[in-house]
Amino acid sequence: MARKGADLTIRLTREQRAKLDRLARKKLGSERSTGTWVRRLALEAAEREARAEDLLRRLRRLPAAHEHADDVERRRRED
Amino acid sequence: MTVIDTSIFVEVERRRAQAEERLRDLLAGGLDDLAVSTVTILELTRSPRLALPWREFYRRLFEAVLILPADRRAAEMGAAIARERERAGHRMQNTDALIAGCAAAAGADLLVTADEDFVGIRHFAVEVVRPS
Question: Which residue of B has its CA nearest to A69?
Fold first, then answer.
């Protein structure tokens, strides 16, 4: 498989492009490009996905914490 | 928005399968729409008995999800919910009432809990994950 470069080209219909331009203008103001906005959205989504995977991985490895669980519950009842 | 109540984490700490499975599903479904109250942060992290790996897990979790503030509006909504529940014969604890208030003030759609005391609140749907 050919190695992918750092650039990403997305093919859109004119209507799709116009829709994204309108939304980008609304979200960012006219001085910023649609490409910048789409790039940011995609990177944020990838970051959120990575965070979720990290949390799931950590959750699998955590030991039981009965004493702490009892402690939290006791404090809840005492409040 | 889905709010996760403190009681779910308590059951996960006990390694109760149903709570753990539900938390996994929620995390896998995406973090954008998940929230916890500041009250939950306090409840889960105040004890010196909290082991380091759990403390680190919670730190990362609370960085990643929405945090609902326990502000004046949340307190007022929590008080209103507690009054309603008390009129219906169900007394709520202050922390539960404040978590409910945070969820209601933020316009949450769903509260996921292991605590039956939230059942009957009309401001959002309540899903009770029963221990297994």
Answer: B10
